[in-house]
Design goal:
Layout (H helix, E strand, L loop, with lengths): L1 E6 L14 E5 L4 H10 L5 E4 L2 H6 L6 E6 L2 E2 L22 E4 L3 H7 L5 E5 L4 H9 L5 E5 L8 H14 L3 E3 L2 H13 L3 H4 L4 H8 L3 H7 L10 E3 L2 E3 L2
Parallel strand pairs: 1-8, 1-9, 2-7, 2-8, 3-6, 4-6
Antiparallel strand pairs: 4-5, 10-11
The chain binds (2R)-3-sulfolactic acid.
(2R)-3-sulfolactic acid binds next to loops.
Length: 234
């Protein structure tokens, strides 16, 4: 039987062997949710960068530049990290370069995996179907916050483990922890996260609508995948 495992923070990823595995990157609030929304709404592909200058340089190659630090838009960038901005038709057909605190870093740290895909609550069922159909073990990689564990990515990991549990053996206790947290939270995910650190951080910036959007499951039936340097939908 295939195995599924959860890496709860980027600080732990060095303990995981990514070779020949499918890695699901999750940063529910908000990088992975923004990527899914952008690609579902006409952005052709996304180049992820962990470094601000490298990202900004892509403007010279005709890319829209998006990114945040501490949740705020980076000075001089076209866009921050709000998924809601990509619901506008005006970005249809554009290519996007993006840098965020944790999400784009997790993508960089996953190089070496067989496949790297992007997940969030908003495409949960699509990701579940995708990994069910792959003949490979899976690691759900939670981007967390600056190396620490966070609740919303752990919840996503638990929700995904729960949806695919018939087809996968749980590899270590992190999958069980994530599933237990999800089972406690599933009837009121927004309420459960009310006191979590990143929800509070974003709430202080007045980004409540983003939080609600990112936590609403199954809005998009797409699975973005890293292909060379680009994240795209095949
Ligand atoms: O860290 C990240 O990748 C971001 O998603 C953080 S924020 O939600 O934009 O603050």
């Amino acid at each position: 039987m295939k195995k599924i495992d959860v890496c709860l923070s980027p600080e732990l990823i060095k303990l995981y062997d990514l070779k020949n595995k499918v890695v699901v990157i999750v940063d529910v609030l908000r990088a992975s949710s923004t990527m899914v929304t952008a690609l579902a709404n006409g952005i052709t592909h996304i180049r992820p960068y962990s470094n601000i200058d490298a990202c900004e340089e892509m403007r010279n190659s005709g890319y829209l530049i998006a990114g945040e630090r501490g949740g705020d838009i980076i000075k001089g960038f076209d866009l921050g990290n709000s998924p809601l901005k990509f619901l506008q038709e005006k970005y249809f057909g554009e290519k996007l370069a993006m840098t965020t605190t944790n999400g784009t870093l997790a993508i960089k740290l996953s190089k070496g995996a067989s496949k790297i895909i992007i997940g969030g609550m908003i495409n949960l069922e699509a990701v579940a179907n995708f990994i069910n159909n792959q003949n490979k073990d899976v690691i759900i990689f939670c981007a967390g916050w600056k190396g620490k564990v966070n609740l919303e990515d752990t919840l996503f990991a638990g929700a995904l483990v729960d949806r695919v549990s018939e087809n996968f053996e749980l590899e270590c206790d992190a999958s069980m922890v994530a599933r237990a947290v999800y089972s406690e939270a599933k009837n009121d995910i927004i309420g459960y996260l009310k006191n979590s650190s990143h929800v509070n951080r974003l709430a202080k910036l007045g980004i409540i609508k983003d939080i609600e959007f990112c936590l609403t499951p199954d809005q998009f039936d797409i699975v973005p995948e890293l292909d060379g340097d680009n994240i795209m939908v095949r």
